[in-house]
Amino acid sequence: MELSALQKARYAYNPKLPASLSQPVDNIALEFGDPTESIADQAELKSLFKHSYGKPIVKFASGSNDKIRRKLNVGVILSGGQAPGGHNVIAGLYDGLKKGNKESKLYGFLGGPSGLTDNKTVEITDSMMDEYRNTGGFDMIGSGRTKIETPEQFAASLETAKKLDLQAVVIIGGDDSNTNAALLAEYFLDKGSPTQVIGCPKTIDGDLKNEHIEASFGFDTAVKTYSELIGNIERDSNSAKKYWHFIKLMGRSASHIALECALQTQPNICLISEEVEAKKMSLGQVVDQICDSVVQRAAKKQNYGVVLIPEGLVEFIPEMKKLIAELNDIMAINADEFLALPSFEDQSAWLGSKLSAESSALFASLPQDIAKQLLMDRDPHGNVQVSRIETEKLLIGMTEKKLAELKKAGKYDGKFSALGHFFGYEGRCAFPSNFDADYCYSLGFSAFVLIASGLTGYISSVRNLVAPADKWIAGGVPLTMMMNMEQRHGSKKPVIRKALVELEGKPFKTFASKRGTWAVETSFLFPGAIQYYGPAEVCDQPTKTLQLEH
Ligand code: FBP
Questions:
Q1: Which residue is closest in CA terms to ligand 1's atom 10?
Q2: What is the Å distance from ligand 1's center to 84 Cα?
Q3: What value does the mean pLDDT take over residues 259-285?
Q4: pLDDT tens digits, residue range 34-90?
Q5: 1.10.10.480, 1.20.210.10, 1.10.1790.10, 2.60.40.10: CATH of 315-388
Q6: Which of 81, 214, 398, 546 is 20 to 30 A away from residue 257, measured at CA?
Q7: Is residue 488 over pLDDT 80?
Q8: Which residues sit with their C-beta closer than 6 Å to ligand 1?
């Protein structure tokens, strides 16, 4: 493979570790806290996780650890969407294992969780590992969205663990995958299997966080990549002064990415889904908010600007949420009948007779492209694939219509020419920022210490992330501590609670205190590209969200 100059240079980068993990491995001891409780539904979770519920939080400290030199066989899975830094989690885990015992083995499960159920593996070697250090992407072993949920899948996972004589499986994934990790840990214990399960918090969406997990990895690099692109577009918009750019940003349900990008780039408008839901705003009201800014800027002859849109927005507009929920049910219950309908026109007519009057009217009023996108397949976890719904185009169309009405009424006298963009995939496989390279390596190394120390049902945790890396606090958090019961596909299921943007939190409040000015004035901020070499204030800054949350 031909290598870019940056890739060669990044091979030489040495990720930073917290002080507790930088010492010789025999000196890394565990400090246990008190037993823990889940965030809610304690009784139900206790009965579902009979063997693994309520374990204590652990922190690494100096001391002796007589288990750390054991020879271990470990399997690692990359689960779900790509996030920059995944390869460094594997590198941290690999280096830890080899430091503990040169005979230890690390297997990569190919193509995500299905690699475990189907026993598709590759043994990771020094040369293979070296090819992927500090690189983006998940191409080292691939990823997938298979959910391990049926009794057959659990049994197959156990079979693979037995065949490979695994002491542990590490699942690198988001909230759903770490829920899976908790269930698998419990299952293995219940079957008397010695295989431990450890999770690692991954997702660019930033929605796997709580009191103990300050950030999911990949968020830092993804938001910095998007912010660079948004800043470039802002500068183009400010130069040409003729376009409004509507930019949809990935992030699934939560608006953490959009909010962070807004803090980094100061666009004219950034919609926050959680606020739209809290204020029960209709689609029309969202469009009115955009038009207000367009009209005010037009009065100053500024017929250009930038609007950021979180990809999950449509799911948070109450009327759309209701429509999507009804569609989910109707399409799931009558799947065969629905799939047999030959055209979109037939599907619409059929749905019209099944949807409530309100949802049916809304569905009929949507542009055909958007209506079609609402009917696309759900992902294996039952989520609507919001990244495939062209919300930016929907909003451009509705804004054009509304502005035409305002012009007719003599309330607007500007020009509106809009362009739509979607930033998502371009941020998921970037070379990890120094922050993500260090954070991921530390998460992987922590996973090794948790495994060697015999723990299961934990998520690797590295905290105090706004401090320099040597001051980070590494350890593990019991997965059951982050769980509650939620309604999923018609029944109550144990899940890790997804973290949405908190409207009372400092990141949102900071944004809200400034957005009035940004909507009218041109206050753009240009963060530029991620820098890997140079002064720490340019290269090693954590996200604004992390800084404001601390
Ligand atoms: P994860 O939750 O698996 O980390 O996925 C992140 C994400 O990039 C979302 O932001 C986006 O909605 C989704 O994946 C897109 O999925 P796909 O890669 O299957 O198109």
A1: 251
A2: 13
A3: 97
A4: 999 999 999 999 999 999 999 999 999 999 988 999 999 999 999 999 999 999 999
A5: 1.10.10.480
A6: 398
A7: no
A8: 80-81, 83, 174, 203-205, 250-252, 311, 386-387, 428
* ipTM given for this complex: 0.98
Active site residue 205: yes
Q: Which of 252, 381, 422 to mutate to test the pocket of ligand 1 (most atoms within 8 A of CB)?
A: 252
Sign of the dihedral through C-alpha 541, 544, 545, 549:
positive
For residue 334, the model assigns a pLDDT of 84
Q: Topology of domain 221-312+390-427+500-549, per CATH?
A: Rossmann fold (3.40.50)
SS3 sequence, 307-341? EEEECCHHHHCHHHHHHHHHHHHHHHHCHHHHHCC
Distance 425 CA to ligand 1 centre (A): 9
Can you give the length of the chain in residues?
550
Q: Is 425 one of the annotated binding-site residues?
A: yes
297 is in an annotated binding site: no
Contact (CB, 8 A) for 476 and 455: yes
Q: Which of 95, 176, 205, 207 is catalytic?
A: 205
Q: What angle (nearest 5°) sits at the alpha carbon of residue 114, between those of residues 112 and 119?
A: 110
Q: Which of 114, 107, 118, 122 is nearest to 165 (CA)?
A: 107
Ligand 1 atom 15: the closest Cα is on which residue?
Answer: 387
Tokens for 150?
A: 């049926």
Q: What is the pLDDT of residue 9?
A: 98
Task: Please name the residue whose Cα sits nearest to atom 14 of ligand 1.
Answer: 81
